[in-house]
Predict the 3D structure of the following.
Amino acid sequence: MKVGLFVTCLVDLVRPRIGFSALRLLEGAGCEVVVPGRQTCCGQPAHNSGDRAAALALARKVVREFDDCDYLVTPSGSCGGMIRTHYADLARDEPALKAAVDRLAARTYELTDFLVNVLGVQSVPGRFEGTVTYHDSCSGLRELGVKRQPRALLGMVPGLEIREMATPEYCCGFGGTFAVKYGEISGRIAERKCEDIATTGAGTVVLGDLGCMLNIEGRLRRRGDTTTRVLHVAEVLAGPDE
Amino acid sequence: MTTTTQPPRSTGHSTGVPAAPARNGTGTFKQRAHDKLHDAKVQRAMRNFNLAGARARAVDEVPNFEDIRVTGAAIRDRALANLDVWLERFEREATRRGTRVHWAESHADINRIVVEIARAANVRKIIKSKSMVSEESHLNDALEAEGFQVVETDLGEYIVQLARETPSHIIAPAIHKSRDDVADLFQEHHRTPRKDSAADLTMEARKFLREHFLSADMGISGSNFLIAETGSTFIVTNEGNGRMTTTLPRVHVAITGIEKVVPTLEDVSCLMRLLARSATGQTISNYISMNTGPKQAGDSDGPEEAHVIIVDAGRSRLLGSDMQEALRCIRCGACMNHCPVYQNIGGHAYGWVYPGPIGSVLTPNYIGLENALDLPNAATLCNQCGVVCPVKIPLPELMRRLREKQVERGLRPWQERVGLKAWAWAAERPAIYGWLTWVAARIGRLAGGQRRLIHRLPGNGWTQERDMPAPEGATFRELYAKRQAGRR
């Protein structure tokens, strides 16, 4: 099984270790993992900014680069949702591209969804001592139905206890360029998320999207919380790099 | 940046609608949002506002709620697909039963028609139950300018009227007000000793409103639906004020949009299963009033004259467009009740009649894309609104399409356009992109310092309210290349 890892532009630039965690999880589960070297971004920032032409160009690029993979797997519900639910509309005027997009969309998975629903993994290498709370990022949850999968996997990690926050499905306020264009509103939404996290008493918040991670961690630190850890679910599941 | 509070520029199809009154807040969307975020009273009120939990419980009681949503959306689509047919059917049936049907193409038409009806019937005092369409045309101001006394009778509307404001929510108009605010307003306007409890305040409003109900010459209401097969108007209320507004005065005028028509009573019964649950978490509203024509011989009550004003004011432009789905809206407010942006800034920051996600879609469509540039962009696209919408309006998708229209019409700021183009150009060229990110990862790492946190980024949008965790210092791309080289 040849799995193409779509690293995502944010992981590439800001947190490569998330990409390597995903890589180790997939390889550990027996996948042949390839990382197409020309990949950059799925085009979502352009798509959400109304620049359809730029989004289409990047969609075309992703489709080409992952065409020969059995699956495209990505450690992001947001980028996975973009490919699986939005590329088709971008390609609507080009039948050949539309067909290729449909083929790719059907093979595209968010990482935890893939591990649970395609590979059916029964164990994970990670170890973790402590209590975590899980934030459901919007795109993964509402576009891809990622809810049970990360919790099922975290439940396999020895020593890890999950304590749910009151509103895990409530948006963290990231919203891509929204966080920059409407920083004040975005910050207030993030503040509500941080309060919810703090109320759980969990030492770590785990989630599956780096954009939301940067938002939540950035707000936690600004409000003076220097201890609550913010980790990608892949990091927790894969454990430390040997 | 253009704002929604400035008088709209002519768009060729503008209906000349006045902007929201300055008393709701002034300046750009961002300034209004900023003011509301720093208004302790508004913030306390918004923190206490939670209809989402009530909805969730009410929806859980219905095992096939999702099926009802699908049916509800289909009912609305069927009506919209042949809107002219159903409107004409409504007009025929309503006219046959003695209702006078008026067509208002613009907001100015609404005000003109109501004034004409009021003058012809020698009206002095007018009572109103909730009508958001009348907020679009600032009907109260227009009527007062013509010398009529206007009294809102929905408790929330009454409160915002006393405060000289407009509703900040489509079904909970005074949600931004605290009990203290209301106590102050009643004391000032009723000239009575200050009341503290909600029950006492409500009883006081009831006493004052009762006098108005009994002395008014005209009642103005909205209409949640227009039922084509019977020619009836249909209103949903919780306070009973709607029933008195439509039956006690000599003249009843219902004002509603063209999109509110539905073919049959059966259709309405399905939509009613969605409306109250989605809005307030009630299984059904306290009152449902269906009015069909004026008082007939043998009727014990009812108005002598019944009028319906059916309003276009921008709506027909959405028909057949990629925005048509917005016309399905049944005005439950669930989208705003679940919106993280609305929950923080409240309704007045949006600048026009309809706040929240549906407002961010309707406002640019009704008053002009260029007059509401912020609204479709001021959303995280979290899709909580789309998930709860009882008629499955794809609200985030409609906001995204409006963003595309802004780009197509060159309405975005030049910095944003240049930035996007430059980024997209690089993202299509992996070698250049790889080099740029190589540099950025290192600069970011340095900027993060010891604590690995960046406290200020250019533009300060991100760092206004939060830090930016610094990059690790090398890109995945280069680290992966090294790893692969090491394995060979």
In short: The mean pLDDT of chain A is 97. Chain A has two domains: 2-118, 130-238. Chain A touches chain B through 65 residues (CB under 8 Å). Strands of chain A lie at 2-5, 32-34, 71-74, 108-110, 130-134, 160-162, 204-207, 229-232.
